[in-house]
Structure formats: structure tokens, C-alpha cells
Amino acid sequence: MDHQLSMTPLRAAGKTERRCIMRQVLGYYRSLIVTALYTLPLSSDFSSGVSPETFFPALRHCISAHPVLSTTVSRAETESPWFVRPETLDLRNHVKIIDPATLKTASGAGHGDGHELELLKEVMIEDHNAPMPYSPTVPPWQIIVLPLSNSKCYITFSYSHSHGDGTSGLAFHKSLLQGLNNSSRPDSDPICIPPSTPLLPTLEEGGNLYISWSYMLRPFLATYLPIFISRPLNLNASLTPSAPDMWRNPPCSYDPETFSTGLEIVVISPEILDVVLGACKAHDAKLTGLLHQIVVRALSTVISKDEAGCFVAQTPINTRRLMKGFTNDDMAVCTTADYELFPRVEVRDGDEVVNAAAWTAASNTTKQLAERASTLVDQPVGLLQYLAHFRMWMLGQLGKQRDTSYELTNVLVFDPSSRTDRGKGWELGRTLISQPANALGSLLSFNVATRKGGEMVVTLTWQRGVLGGGDEDALVRRVGEEVQKGLSRVAEE
């Protein structure tokens, strides 16, 4: 009761937020991560150690810029959760410093960038695997600082999906960089008085998610009509495309004792990326459209024909530009998704990675995604407004077949700084986005982030145990290598 008395109720969670909240309460999906490599200003270093106090002023700036960072969720386990704001925040709850020497990977041989990425992988996997219950007084986010030398560190922003999507993680890092460069000295006071700024409206309130009768009735009719009627009418219980031979492996499952995330990282150099982007422009395609072709070819190379005759892909879409008052600098949950079925590619040595047919497919996907991103009408996320019982619905998904084979999330190009005096303050370089295992989601997630003028990083994540027998890490590593090889060959061709 005391906790309730110290809280300021803000607003009820929207339907999209409720989906994220219940998924987290059940443990099916844990922390979302956006990480960036930071370089310290010339006037300071970590030689005398790093402490949470170093980041307190910057976190105050972030909390002031993003109202959702000062909120937690009340009654999260119910069908009527609310966002509430504590009277004070203790910033010590939101900063975690990792000593690299304590990591298992630290004992392995090697130095340089590859070794540092292995250290980061260990930190990210541990965070993805940690349960993330909603605290009555502590908002569900933190930064995890991994010092790499006296002059650089990885800073991981770990947060609940109820408090933001992938674009939100980039917005946080933009604010964090500003805060670091605007603060001249550490702050020993961990107590922060949150702003009284109201939350942004829900996705449903920010945009008109109109659902036509034909769109809404299609899955309803497929559920209740006999198969001999629904099949000729091309009605499916799911709005995603489907095929008997699609790659989907075991049904959705969740065991809290064994549920964990696997993770692999692929780095694409700026030189290769620049040539690939030029090729996309020449073929009337965007990078995401091409990446689908690269991913399908990689999966076709690694996954046997007996396991996968085709692949159904999910592509999240950012709806901010269609919502009044929302920008990419705002933290919120503003995503819907598009779905597409891709046939398996027969891969032969010496073939072009992306031939004329593949470029046409990449261009068609680009146009399809652009069309879906131009409207809020008949978006899958809009159907959530007709769902009343999220717990019952999610529990009912266990044991059912997965709707999609893989997810490709591309948060596009990130430019966090408008500074003209680069080299004098904190700098932000390589950027990564990573999703946790998703008990109700795709078998494999490809998460893409690109630092403007720098590298593109692809993280591959999956729920351990769902990719079949054998060494899953080796299998995903091969997929990642094929993605890297494919993009390199596109640049050469």
C-alpha cells in the first residue's frame, strides 16, 4: 500500500503496450538491448576506474528528455495495467558497471576488436537471460557499462519493450551522448526527482488504426469455418502467409528453467556497405529489401531442403511519421509489421549472390514495405484493439505452430550527434540492437543497426533449443558468415 501512495498514476497502458507487458510478466520476452561504443573525451579517462556517479548527470538529462524513463507499471499481471511515476528515482538502480576481468570470455586468448565483441556478447546474453519482473518503484531499464580501455567503453541500454521499441533505444543513446557532453563532472547524489511531463499517448491514440471489416473477418472466419470452405477462399486463421513446407521447427514453447537466448554478431565494414547501398539504388531497392534476399540465401545454404522449403519473414515497421506529435527522438512503442513468404533459393557455387530475379524481388519487397509504412489502415497491430484477455491469448499460443520463420528488424541509419567540435567530447561509434529470445516469435531474429558513416552490425538472436538438434551456435554462426559473405560478394559484383 505504501508503494501505491508514493506513485502518481499517469495513464492506462494501450493495447500494444499491454501485449509487451503481459509477454514480459509471463517471461516469454525479456530485455530489449541497444548498445553503442563510446569513446571518452581527451580530457578524461578510466585509468582511475569508472563509477556509476560518472553517468548520473547524463541519466538525469535522459529522464528529463523521455518521460517514460521515470515510469513503471502498476498491476502489470492484470488486464488493466497502468503507467505510474514514483516520487523519486534512485539512479544507482539504473547503472551497472562490468569489470571485464570477471567475464568468462576474459580468460580466453586474443585481443582487439574480436575479443572485445566476445566480451560484449557475454554481457548481452546474460542480460537477455535475466528475468525482468516489474518493480513497484523502479522503472524497468538500466545502462550496463563495459570498459574496454582507458578511453572507450560499450554502453548497453537494456529496457522493457513496454517502454520503447528499437528506435526508442537509439533515441536514448542520442540523449545519453548529449548528457555526457553537457556535464562537466560526476554527481555523487543518486536521487533524481522525475519531471511532471505527461507520457506520450498510446499508439492507438496517436494514430487512427482503422481496421476494415474484410481485414478483421478474415482470421475470424478461418477459425470457425470448416477447412473445405476456408481453404478454397484462401482464408487463414493467421494474417501471415503460410505454406506446409515453411521453416518453423517446433511449436511455441516456454520452460522458465531452460529458457535462454543465443546470440551472434556480424560486422559489415563501411566500405562494403557503401558499395552495397549504391547497388541497391541502381536496382530501385532499399537495403532492407536486399537484406531479405541475402538472409534467404544464407538460410537456404545452411538449412536443409527437408527442413525448409520456404521462409516466412516478419519486418517491423516504424509508424512514427504517421502519428501526430511523434518523432524518432521519442521513446514509445510505435511499431507494426509486414509479412512476406520467400521461396527457398537453390544455391550453387559460382552463382551470383543476387541475380536479376533476386534484385526484382528485393525491389518488390521495398515497394511493399513502403506501401505498408504509408498507412495505418489494416495494420496487424490494429487488431489488438479487439483483444480483451492478453494472458489467456498468450498462454493459448504455447503448443501452436510459429507464424514466421525469421524476423528482420532494421532501425536504419543512426546519427546521434550534431556536434561541430568532434574529437573534444564523448563520441559514439558502432551501434547494435539485439532482441531477446521470443517464446511466441520467429525462430531467428536478424537485428540491424548502422552508424552513419560507419559500420552496419547485424545481431542474430534465437531461443535456444528451437533450431533443431546439433550445435545451434555453429549453425547460426554459419548463417551469419553467409550473410557477411553475401554482402561482400554483392559489393564485388
SSE arrangement:
Layout: H1 2-5, E1 7-12, H2 15-25, E2 32-39, H3 56-65, E3 72-74, E4 82-86, E5 89-90, E6 95-97, H4 112-129, E7 141-147, E8 152-159, H5 166-182, E9 191-192, H6 203-206, H7 213-224, H8 227-230, E10 261-268, H9 270-282, H10 287-302, E11 310-318, E12 335-343, H11 356-372, H12 390-397, E13 406-414, E14 427-434, E15 444-451, E16 456-463, H13 472-492
Parallel strand pairs: 6-7, 11-13, 13-15
Antiparallel strand pairs: 1-4, 2-8, 2-14, 3-4, 5-9, 7-8, 10-16, 11-12, 15-16
Helix pairs in contact: 3-5, 9-13, 10-11, 10-13
GO molecular function, one term: N-acetyltransferase activity
Protein name: Alcohol acetyltransferase
InterPro entries: Alcohol_O-acetyltransferase, Atf2/Sli1-like, CAT-like_dom_sf
